[in-house]
Amino acid sequence: MQRSILKIDINNELDVVLAYKRAMQLSERLGMPQANQTKFATAVSEICRNVVEYVGNGAIQYSLTEVAGYKYLEALVTDRGRGIGNLDLILSRKDFSNSLRGTGIINSKKLVDLFEIESDFEKGTRVRLSKKLPQTGFGVNKETLERWATEFKQEAAISPYAEIKNQNMQLLEVLEQLRLRNLEAEQQLQEIRRLNSQLQKYNQDINQLLDERESKNKLLQEINLSLDAFAHTVSHDLRAPLQNINGITTALEACLEAGQLEEAGRVFPMLRQQTQKMDRLITGILAYSLAGHHNLPKKAIDLQVLLHQVVSSLTVPATFQIIIQPNLPVLYTQEVYLYQVFSNLIGNAIKYHDQPERALLQVNYTPEKDWLYFTVEDNGPGIAPEAQEQIFSMYETGQSFARPGSSGLGLSIVRKIIEEKGGKIWVDSKGEGSRFTFTWPATELIQEG
């Protein structure tokens, strides 16, 4: 479909100006955006100026066309010149300078949506420039086109200088719109960058949460394994004294039925011993479960006083010498924790010493920047290298034989408490004597005023 609108002869620069003006007027009346109006009119003036410069005369025909379902405003510029001999070279050229011939053709091609050019020797050149119209701007009929043609004929004579000035003003207006769009695009780009940065931060936070969840899952698995082992060990060790008690009560019952009161009297201490063993085991289990409860209250603890209470609560042989470093610090912490730690370490040193007549135990303290270092050292039988790690596990004493009065939970309680505080505990022993060292957070140290 094609509808002719008007035709202009191109003979001089004034006709070029008129062709530009009609292109602007038609594109505006057909609802084309202003930027596209300027592009179309500029492309028209470029080709028309080539006609004046290289041929001398020609014509331009404006029409409405439809291609592949889209409506276009078309300008067909023709001349009867000698043609363009190097047209293929011009169209294939990538780098252009304004001084090179053919620049106007390439510039016009960039400004329109459809571009066609035909050029034959001695037959002239035909250039078809088409700019797409909005769908709402194509509602014109034959009467409308005739009215436009009449209005164009009745217009006053064109002043080329005024028209060029008008074109420049329009170009400046388009440039201002482009500047504003560039500013808007820059703001949008900055917003996109901000959103990308925020998205990256969210991704990092999500990855951190996933890592934390993975770490907690592993910790939970370890705790579950520890609980399984704890339950198994507790059930096993509780069953042993219960079976012994059951056996002793059966024997006691037989003695009483047989009237063997003297024999029954010898069985009673054995029964008491087994119940005491079970009591110690249950007490140790409760202490182990208590270690690590963060809701225990804190208060100021004078270690000098606490250690005196610990030693007083233990059964210490008269020959057993205990030396405690003077001027121990005051800590703001959970009293039950420190009491358990020192009670177990000092109590073990007393309990397992093989020569109490020459026994010596020393408690020392060394402050460092982040941690306080405490040592409990004795001159007892020592601990074999292969057992120095095992002794901190539940029910491991490092001995090849059972010790009376031991639950086997003491050092595991100590390690659990210290690790809950973020510290560490280890033992050094080479042949004779053992030195237990543990760290305690220096943040709980109360500085002297």
Number of domains: 3
Poorly predicted regions: 396-407
Helix count, DSSP H or I runs of 4 or more residues: 10
Shape assignment: rod-shaped
CATH topology of the largest domain: Heat Shock Protein 90
Strand portion: 15-25%
Structural class: alpha+beta
Written description of the protein model:
With 449 residues, this protein is of the alpha+beta class. 52% of the residues lie in helices and 19% in strands. The chain has a 5-stranded antiparallel beta sheet. The protein has a 5-stranded mixed beta sheet with strand order 7-9-10-12-11. Strand 11 and strand 12 form a beta hairpin.
Summary tags:
449 residues; alpha+beta; Heat Shock Protein 90; Helix Hairpins; 3 domains; 5-stranded antiparallel β-sheet
Please provide a brief summary of the model.
The chain has 449 residues and is α+β, with helices and mostly antiparallel strands. It is built from ten helices and twelve strands.
List the helices and strands and how they pair.
Elements: E1 2-10, H1 13-29, H2 34-54, E2 58-67, E3 70-79, H3 87-92, H4 103-111, E4 114-120, E5 124-132, H5 142-154, H6 160-258, H7 261-290, E6 299-302, H8 303-313, E7 321-324, E8 330-333, H9 335-351, E9 360-367, E10 371-378, H10 410-420, E11 425-428, E12 434-441
Parallel strand pairs: 7-9
Antiparallel strand pairs: 1-2, 2-3, 3-5, 4-5, 6-8, 9-10, 10-12, 11-12
GO molecular function: kinase activity
Domain Histidine kinase: 233-444
Protein name: histidine kinase
